[in-house]
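Recap slide: High-affinity zinc uptake system protein ZnuA, sequence and predicted structure.
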Amino acid sequence: MKKTALFLGITCSTSIAHADAPAIITDIAPVQSLAAMVSGDLGVPSRLMTQAGSTHDLALKPSQAREIAKADLIIWIGPDLSPGLERSFDALAPDVVRLTLSETDGTIRLNYREADDFGLDHHDDEHADEHGHKEDHDEEHDHADEHKDEHEHDEEHDHADEHKDEHEHDEEHDHADEHKDEHDHEEEHADEHGHDDEHDHAHDGVDPHLWLDPANAAVWVDAIAKALSDLDPENATTYMANAESAKSEIMSLRTTIEAQLNELEGAPLLVAHDAYQYFEAAFDLEVLGSVSDSDAKASGPARLAELKELVEEQKPACIILDPSTDTDLVAAVADSSVPTIAVDPAGTDLPEGSGQYAALMGGMAQALVDCAKA
């Protein structure tokens, strides 16, 4: 495959926050960047994810554990993105103020997608109105608060399901032979219906890649300013002013990206990992399908066969890869004539600082345009 590379990653910070400013811990680079926009010269937030890879199974170093224990404020996306961090925070810093961005009022939350939410059988119907997708997303913006309780209720069920799945996983090890026939039957059922039912229904709830919508970033800088002001009231005016400047920058960034992506002219895309739903919705992009779902679980054979057929019918302008991509699976659905681009949605290879969020979002947009023109 022709490959256009966009290198997004990190360098670990060695800076020490101002003595009088709250010590801030963040989970991923985009969150660190937003926190830096608000803290300004008063402090340098640190982050835990310092290498490209899955955020779902982030392992802490001993030095990071010590840093968490000494923190004044923890800012993170939430347990849907990094479930292991919640346990670490509870154990290491039970009394530290914790700002969970996914739970912040006004945050736009989109549910995990199933296969039919992409462009397969319902592709033409879903896009019959050329503005329908954007109007749906705008409605999400207008009614984000209205759906907050509904999503939180879903998250509670997700948490219960997570423990249920762990228990069932243990039982599978103890009773592998007992469940073998049942598993074979499920696979036959998936093939009969043309898709992998076990995969399609493996997860429910909120897609945690929320930072890829600038509207969420704008909501979060206000929440960060409020949290910092409560901890450091002497500098509250500075935090609030920084948040206002940050929101202006984020909205300007959104306008710039919209202009960049106009060059795609509705060209369809294919994603290897369903991690870009918020970016797609925010900028009205058309994505035919995903090789693996939002938590990187690979599609089954039936789903891959559907994707392959779709790619042959509606050749995508670009395939978006990321650090967790299984290139063999991608090759199973698309040949080398389709250009690809490597993108880390967490931006872990970009220089840290207040400008990282703009570099991530703007760089992703330009890379998509360049890939589509390859």
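The two ends are 11 Å apart (CA to CA).
Residues 71 and 318 are 42 Å apart (CA to CA).
(End of recap.)
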